[in-house]
Structure formats: C-alpha cells, structure tokens
Amino acid sequence: xxxxxxxxxxxxxxxxxxxxxxxxxxxxxxxxxxxxxxxxxxxxxxxxxxxxxxxxxxxxxxxxxxxxxxxxxxxxxxxxxxxxxxxxxxxxxxxxxxxxxxxxxxxxxxxxxxxxxxxxxxxxxxxxxxxxxxxxxxxxxxxxxxxxxxxx
Length: 152
Description:
Number of helices: 3
Order of helices and strands: HEEHEEEEH
Distance between the termini: 58 Å
Structural class: alpha+beta
C-alpha cells in the first residue's frame, strides 16, 4: 500500500475500531439468557437468569422495554448484601430482594439512568427485577413467597 493512501486510511480504521469498542463496552445487552418460570400467588413470571458475573454485571442495561410479566432473576453464589444501581439502564424497575426460602425481604423502586444504590435489608442470594410498580400493582409485599427459585 502506498504511503499517502495509508495515511488516509489509518485514521478511518482507528475511528472504526474505536466505534466498535464503544458499542461493545457501553452498549452491551444480555441476549440468549436461559429463562425460568416463577410464580407468586396467581401471578406467573418468566424471568431471564443472570447467574454469572458477566450476566449480572450487564443485567437489563440498554433495553428500551420489557414485557409485563417478564423480569430478570439475579442469582449469586454467596448470600450477601448485594446492592444494585441503574447506570445505563433505560427503563425504571422494581427489585425484590429474596431470601433462600423464597420470601421477599424488601422491595425497592429504581429510577432509570441513576447510580443510587438499592440494597437488601438482609443478606440474600436472589434478586428479581420487574418493570417499575409491578410488585405494588399486585400488592406483593415483603414476606410474599416467590416459588420456583433454583436451588443452589
């Protein structure tokens, strides 16, 4: 390749690489995650499983919507005070922190695109994110049992 052409192509190539890096680093979306059917009272939930460090880190980032009775179930290896925030998350969510026996410990309402920490009131292994208001609209409160959680 001649030197003048290389000088023209090199900045274009660098810009393309930077653009691709930006898309992969900041535009990540979890796709193809396994799902699980959960139940609470008369309500059924189809939840995507975020049970790996990468899937948990991306969560529901960069999505513009979520079906009404769908959510994401975060599963951790260890019980702890796992906190959540909404950086790069486009839709407002409600999160239920869930004990090993399936009982909801507490529910938090989370605004889109914020970095406020939302934490459980006790050490938990499970957290279920749904569209904002989903739990309140169904009068599901702390103590309500979520059935169908995978055993760890």
